[in-house]
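Objective 1b of the project was to move from sequence-level analysis to a structural picture of ligand recognition. The entry below was assembled by the postdoctoral researcher (A.K.) and checked by the PI before modelling. It contains the amino acid sequence of the target and the SMILES of the bound compound, adenosine-5'-triphosphate.
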Amino acid sequence: MNYEAVLAGLPDAVIAVDAEGRVVFWNAAAEQLTGRSLRRASGRVLKELLPRDVSVVRRLEETLATGESRSEAESTIETTDNRTIPVSVVTAPLFARDGTVEAAVAVLRDVSRIRQLETEVRRGETLAAAGRMAVGLAHEIKNPLGAIRGAVQLLARELGASSPLRDYTDVLRTEVDRVNRIIEQLMDLARPVEIRPVPLNLHQLLERVARLVEEEARSREITIVRRYDPSLPPILGDEDRMLQVFHNLVRNALEAMPQSGTLTLVTRVSLNPLFGKMDLGAGQRTMVEAQVIDEGAGIPATARARIFDPFFTTKASGLGLGLAICHRIIEEHRGTIQVEPGPGRGTAVTCFLPIAKSS
Ligand SMILES: Nc1ncnc2c1ncn2[C@@H]1O[C@H](COP(=O)(O)OP(=O)(O)OP(=O)(O)O)[C@@H](O)[C@H]1O
Ligand SMILES: [Mg+2]
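Corresponding predicted holo structure:
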């Protein structure tokens, strides 16, 4: 049995150091996780190689000193390109024949996917709770609203078309309809979204959304740029729901650029290590990315954790439901939605969606 080959092929990063703390083993997963090659790592003192990853280094030093195993569930690794990856660390001593500790080995597991899923679950729970409350509320409000609307219609008819008081009944009706729409949207959040997924051409869908906002974009000197991957396979999605998602995202992007700017629509087959493949029950499914990028002011770090919360808004006339609804719909499609700072400035929102055929 070639144990070295087994260790080399493990998905977890395996790092071993000798009694002086010099790297004596560094598998492929360790290269990938830290962004440092075996050649670069081999023989180097770990503390110098990973100056910022104090906890891994410290745990190994403790193991070397005491001969005891150590573990840490919530540690991190800094990659060479300055990303922080959450990892769990377990160390173990390797004993020489005379019983002294001659080396220590650390196993590091990348837990970013798990952390991401935990965040998703928490977000989903908040939405579900808000949705349940909304349904209760909506039932109480919808009936009286229906009665008001009926009464307003009767009143309008009584007044006749020429009455100057018709302005008031018109206001009443429009506003009642507006409240109704808000309630409908809230109920959307609560009830399980019934999606009817069919193979969809994402580009045609994005073009339909672009057409909806074209006029407004032109009047505000906003250029819409397309960067579509021509070989993009069809996605599996519910057409109306997907339109709703991208309409919301594009509206947010336009609202983020009060005067002039560029709105970029991007599609590509995802190579993202976390969301590029998704298990939809019948094996791994390739995902595509649809991205809406704006050149607005961006989302302040303090707001980033809350933008998917229902009713979180920084806009005078916003409801704060757009992204909550998008999240809900994408989740029903087994996709993921990610919000990041845009390149340079602004915001980039990425939707990961499954392709129609498994691969
Ligand atoms: N592209 C963006 N650029 C900057 N901030 C954004 C962007 N998209 C969303 N946000 C922030 O997230 C908040 C929530 O967005 P969301 O779409 O859920 O609600 P809204 O746009 O405020 O209202 P609604 O969509 O219900 O009309 C916004 O108020 C804004 O602060
Ligand atoms: Mg919005």
